[in-house]
Amino acid sequence: MLNPLVRVVAVVAPPPSLGDNTGDLDRLKKMLAPHLAGMLPMVPYPRLSKVAERFRAAGFSGTAIINDMMGSPVLVDFLPQLPPVLAGMALDLGTTHLEATLLDLSTGKVLARADLENGQIGFGADILTRIHHAARPEGLVELHRAIIVSVNELAAKLAGISGLAVAEIRALSVSGNTSMVHFFLNINPYHLCREPYIPMVNAPDPCLAGELKLAIHPAAVVWILPSVGSYFGGDLISGVLASGIDRQQETCMLIDVGTNAEVIVGNREWLIACAGAAGPALEGGVARMGMRAGPGAIEHVRIDPDTGEIQYETIGNTKPKGLCGSGLIDLVAELYLTRQIDIRGKFRPQAAGDRLVQGNDGWQFVVVSSEDSADGQPVVLGQVDLDALMRSKAAMYAILTTLTNQVGVAFAELHRIYVAGAFGRHISPRQAVVLGMLPDLPLAIYEPVGNSSLAGAERILLERPARERCLELVKKITYIELNVNHEFMLRFSGSRFIPHTDHALFPSVPFFDGE
Amino acid sequence: MLNPLVRVVAVVAPPPSLGDNTGDLDRLKKMLAPHLAGMLPMVPYPRLSKVAERFRAAGFSGTAIINDMMGSPVLVDFLPQLPPVLAGMALDLGTTHLEATLLDLSTGKVLARADLENGQIGFGADILTRIHHAARPEGLVELHRAIIVSVNELAAKLAGISGLAVAEIRALSVSGNTSMVHFFLNINPYHLCREPYIPMVNAPDPCLAGELKLAIHPAAVVWILPSVGSYFGGDLISGVLASGIDRQQETCMLIDVGTNAEVIVGNREWLIACAGAAGPALEGGVARMGMRAGPGAIEHVRIDPDTGEIQYETIGNTKPKGLCGSGLIDLVAELYLTRQIDIRGKFRPQAAGDRLVQGNDGWQFVVVSSEDSADGQPVVLGQVDLDALMRSKAAMYAILTTLTNQVGVAFAELHRIYVAGAFGRHISPRQAVVLGMLPDLPLAIYEPVGNSSLAGAERILLERPARERCLELVKKITYIELNVNHEFMLRFSGSRFIPHTDHALFPSVPFFDGE
Hints:
By secondary structure, chain A is an alpha/beta fold. Chain A is 29% helix and 24% strand. The first copy, chain A, has four domains: 6-79, Ubiquitin-like (UB roll); 87-224, Domain of unknown function (DUF4445) (Nucleotidyltransferase, domain 5, 2-Layer Sandwich); 244-280 and 389-505, ATPase, nucleotide binding domain (Nucleotidyltransferase, domain 5); 294-380, no CATH class.
């Protein structure tokens, strides 16, 4: 039984008469109450006239559209017939990419999927640049408009794919990092990046799409996943929902890798989280050859240790266009295992074959030649990209160790480690272990959960318990701020080698010293 | 203990820190919950950024402003200090006049009183003309704008008198007839005057002043008294509140006389109501010399049966400008008792002295000469005004008898009759009995309650139980539609004489037959 964010209720009301002169809207509300646990729905002023007129025009029978505003039913529309489909949009509001699905809210069926580059990129590739831009006159408004335009474009894509009008989208759930949510709501992000890193709001109340000038139906309910902190957004709350870590008896861990590395450890009794900047290396669209996990993205790479021959798999089995996050991790791990890069993550020209060439920014490794690629451009990995990945992986491991140390849980005590991230559908934990990004544990412990930000947004659209659980989670999760954590900085330095300065931590990974 | 429509809550919150990174708005909500029966207040999207920014700017301590939206607290503003006064406006939204008080919501003290002509009069003196105007292109919007302009003007007057800025008014309660409420909300009144006479809404949910483009604080809560039917508006619900008829053990009656005559009979067990057009005679500003009960209005008249000399009292003891409703009733009753008009309400030139003169529209009776009046214009009563009053009083009595007959209650069984009406502060029941407007009962039964529409709106501002009671009243009151009632039409004909064709009904009134 689904309890979607918006629902339809069929109504056949007795027409008004001299003997029953109840007002149109009051008549409709009264008919709805038995379907709403006895509650009379509220009608927001901007919808009052429309609902009442449509109810009358439909001859007092048809379908009421009810938004669920945190348990309170809100009556926002009336249609003469049951709509052929009640569509809701789940949105992963990423810093570089937006990804969305359109769901049939009556069945949960996926009607369409689409993604789009975040239109704010022109104002800065990374969040910090955008937060600074927001402080300029009109800066925040520009960023807000840009993201609304992108969301509208994505909604139009979804509508186009599913053969619906964009105004037929009646609900929107939004899962994003805290900064993106601030931009989306047009609220000042100034304090997000300044100690002590405080959001303007963690859990904004639901609003109507019209208030945000969204192109979907103006009375569509907009439900935003709450954040725990400036660097711990609704996207990770989505991850908790999708993984179910908050319901596990044994202690588990959830890792979400993107521009920020966000980690949560705990079980059904307690949850502790932290987050840190992992750098843009793993976020598609930022690294030069990086891309989202979409058609043409190389998601797995193998290098033959004897011949140096490269085998790869692309999503959709098409010609390759670039590397998504999992492909990048695979590639760098294989380069290390075949000793083409050293423990500091630097190319070893003496070991690399003719794939290593000099580019404008120094060495670059040709993964796919221009002849074999999708667009005539070679797919390459430069030293610059490698350096960025090294910072990212170091940050990730430092975050994991800092957090587990804080709570006094050893990695070996973890029952399961969920690995989320929109950057790659099928991250290979083994290769991440080789790089020293994830701890050296039996691989069965790792469970990739894909784009859990989007998965969480989908559950929010469909299930009231998920919405209630989100708000409980915000209260339940203890957040540790790493931006001012000295232990983290020390651990970060130690993690800037493959796999680590202390190679006893990674017994399963070959260690090539002193080169 | 007052439970006003808007309240202040003093907050001293711990500032955010690395150890407590709760978002600004969530921190504020959490601090408020213990003051709100544990409920977290909602924050409407248009107020989100303002509230959060003001809370931070005030150093996390100050005063939260909470609207009461039908029991649900809504956080709409934050001030650095306790405001010197928390002001709310109670409004009687009359067809011809608006009357309002400004209250200090913390103490209930009246800060200012003011009134104003309804700016819609240019679109038609009576409601029906305006409803027809609303059907023209832009007609409804014109009427809506006109009433908003008037309300804004009245709010400015109140603010001026009390030395406040108009934006310091933080709440508005509105008591008006159903049509005026439709105009105020910009919703179509088309069906109000067409069988079966159905309002678009009886009980609109509260909204924010900004949504209606009111000049008071944009986040001020606007609470509208609910209606029972097209001809039974929130103004009469106000009357029920003010009289307390719904709490009486014995059966009582409430009569509200204005453009419409609205009557309710019942007790704490049951309430039955009806309403009918009484004509504009008793509504100040419509009858030629009619005016509101304000300074210069003649409110009482005596004619010496021997000398024909006229004595009158004006409100404020100033020179007379016109007649308010109670003055009009007094005057006509005295003209009848001194035999200067006959039982059909026609002037008797043979009996009248030199005060009766020929005007453009026939006979007119000079109450005050131009020398004695306030503005150099004589105060006169024309045959046209008399005819209008006769229709009004006939309608009133017909309504009373139809209603009591429907419920099987004799007039003599009534424990008390409350007489309300903005048209006259001190209606004289005796003179209304002489005219055959009210039943011939011991005068002690009558209790004038003045402008109960405004009194009810004031209680709504101050008392949550009054707001809850209103909504219960709408469910409790059974409304009988008189527009299609044949019995009413018959009774109306019989009532078009002074006091009545059946003079046995009025034993205390002298009857002058056959003239």
